[in-house]
Amino acid sequence: MQAGVEPRLEIGSEHDVRFTDLLANGQGVGRVGQRVVFVWGPLPGERARIRISEIKKSYAVGETLEMLEHSPDRTAPFCPVFGTCGGCQVQHLSYGAQLEWKTRLVRDALERIGGFAGVRVAPALGMDEPRAYRNKMALVVGASGEAIELGFYQMRSHDFVPIAGCPVVLPQLDEAIAALRRIANDSKVGPAFRTVKHAIARAGASTAQSVLALTTTEASPEIARIAGELAGALPGITGISNSFAPPSENAILGRKQRVLWGASEMEERIPLADGREARYRVSAASFFQINSAMVARVFIFLAGLTPARNVVDLYSGAGTFAIWFAMHGARVTGIEENRAATVEAQANAELNAVAKQTRFFSGRVESVLRTSAGRQALREADLAFLDPPRKGSDPQTLDALCAANLPAIWYLSCNPATLARDLARLRAGGYVLEDVTPFDFFPQTGHIEALARMRRPDASQRERR
User: Fold this and answer.
1) CATH tag for 14-69 (out of 2.60.40.2950, 2.40.50.140, 3.40.50.12780, 3.20.20.140)
2) Which residues are catalytic?
């Protein structure tokens, strides 16, 4: 092709492309002439022969026909359904390269979206063994002819991918997959599974306990009748529940829960830097981090920082971090929208003997902060700790924190884009970003947690409102 001549780009056209970057969803990024093209499979530094499958206004999407040059960071995926199942995006990238890439994802989001030029982002902290770490799984239950299969949704669709096991979940959960497949196809008890849409299980890495929730459209007497036999076949099971009345067609959990056997909760224990353990009793539906080993690593990191005396813990879930702060001498006010999670947080405070140092409010964070109790909590706090969902915090909450003039805000996020957006709003309210530390809670995927620490330089001189 002549220099300066733009290559012809159309559906079905084939091109030799050098890839330079990787998106969080696992797509390689290259160019055909001046047009950006996204393709699943290639890694940065690799060349591939591709075929264009979609053309949009500002980019194109292609499919890999042949790999022409390989990156030294490429590694063999360890799961037989990688590339089809939507659970993992980067098993083909070596783990050291994953950590470097995720550090760049955080830094790039802060610079591009938040405008934080030259921000200090520490190298991402990862796992010694980045497999068999997830303490929760949500399986799709589907019929294949006469057989009942368990699996996940296909990447970028709701097509069903049957699995025999999953190498990124805890070993006891992997064993549970095989046990559930046997039970679901047993001639005596299996027919009850015809009504099940999802099987959600959570296990304790430290205790090997597990709980199971089976989601059906309506309360299932069939599942209730086989609960005892289910319990006898599942490793470490402490409770089985029926989750029903899902709020939408694609919802994994129902609005209602009914315990059918045992208890609704299992126990997890997270080691602290001083040799103690924090204990948590959580259900399959709990708002609790899915990687217990990395929670322990965050705890170690927090132990090296200046301790807080009074903490407001926003989006507090089952009390994971509220209890850590209380066990290190702080008085903590936790706010969480989900009522069931608030009840669990209160019970976990009792379990760890910190109930007198903690209080938990149930309600939308921005609404609770407008109450007299919420305003008082902000007046008394010297630290706000935020751990919101992927959508991030809301402007009203961030503005309330700025108006309260808290000395410090620590923000733990699982979405670099919304983190950057929210930190920019806090910066506009007078806060300075000190540092950001990524934690790899989700090895083999494009997800990354990051803890950002912000301070208010004039907090000690200004009157607290």
Assistant:
1) 2.40.50.140
2) 414
